[in-house]
Each structure stands twice: as C-alpha cells, then as structure tokens.
Design goal:
With 152 residues, the chain is an all-alpha fold. α1 packs across α2, α3 crosses α4 and α3 crosses α5. The longest helix is centred in the last third of the chain and has 26 residues.
Length: 152
C-alpha cells in the first residue's frame, strides 16, 4: 500500500534577502558593464561577494557536522558542495581563534558573515531575479490600487 507523503520542504527563510542582495549587485554590475547582455552580467554577479551565506544556520550545521563523519555524497550539487566546504573551512579557522566555541556557534557565526560568492548557477540567479521583480511589481500595483479611489 502506498502512503500519502507530505512534502517536508518549507520556504527558504532568506529567499527575499538573497533576491534583494542579488538585485542590488546586478544593478551595480549592469551599470558598470552596460555593453554586456543580461546573461553576461549574471555570470559576473554570481561570482561577486554576497552579504551572507544564503543557507539557514540549522541546515549548515547539519551538513557541516555530517562532513566531519563522512564526505558529502557525489550527487551533491557542485555549488552547494563548494559553499559547505567553505563554511567548514572557515569554522576550522575559527577553532584556532576560539577553541572553546562549539561547532554550532562557529557555524552560526560563519553563515552570517560575507560569502565569497552567491553559490548560484546563472539560470538560478536569473529565475530568482525574475520572480523577485515580478513580486515587486505586483506589490507596487496593489499599493497603487489602494491609493486610487474607485469612481462610483
């Protein structure tokens, strides 16, 4: 008998922050490289530093903790692998400075700091930007509708 499974996925808590950060960097780079196309600019943007590691602290702790017991599976996305390896590397550096900090505190500290890049593919970044801009336009239209009185 097949069970009805409920998806355990939740919405990513930093999705809007990541989209806002990505859009800010995109606008900055687009002004600098105005002769390039959107995809070319996105290739530059995904390699620009991000405000933080866009992964939840809990998820990063689970993954980094498991990395001490076994390597990440080979099926793991290359960019995610890079991100978690960078978080682990920074946690190990913090161990030298703060040997009394538990792994959880080090992970929480590292994840909240600037990341060397967004760890996104160009296609993912493009999709995130399109969705975020669509959401912003929709919110703007709703605000405008509330401001304009309806003639009766």
């Amino acid at each position: 008998m097949k069970e009805n499974r409920i998806s355990r996925r939740t919405s990513f808590e930093y999705a809007e922050d990541r989209a806002r950060d990505l859009l800010k960097v995109f606008k900055r780079e687009f002004e600098i490289c105005d002769c390039l196309g959107i995809i070319d600019v996105l290739k530059i943007v995904v390699d620009c530093p991000a405000e933080r590691f866009y992964v939840s602290e809990e998820r990063a702790l689970r993954v980094v903790s498991s990395m001490y017991r076994r390597p990440l599976p080979s099926s793991c996305n290359r960019l995610k692998r890079e991100m978690f390896e960078e978080i682990k590397r920074r946690c190990e550096q913090l161990l030298d400075v703060y040997p009394d900090w538990p792994l959880s505190r080090r992970v929480y500290y590292v994840v909240g700091r600037q990341a060397p890049k967004f760890y996104l593919s160009v296609n993912s970044a493009h999709t995130i930007l399109i969705e975020y801009q669509r959401k912003c336009r929709k919110e703007q239209m709703l605000r405008l509708r509330r401001m304009i009185p309806v003639a009766s």
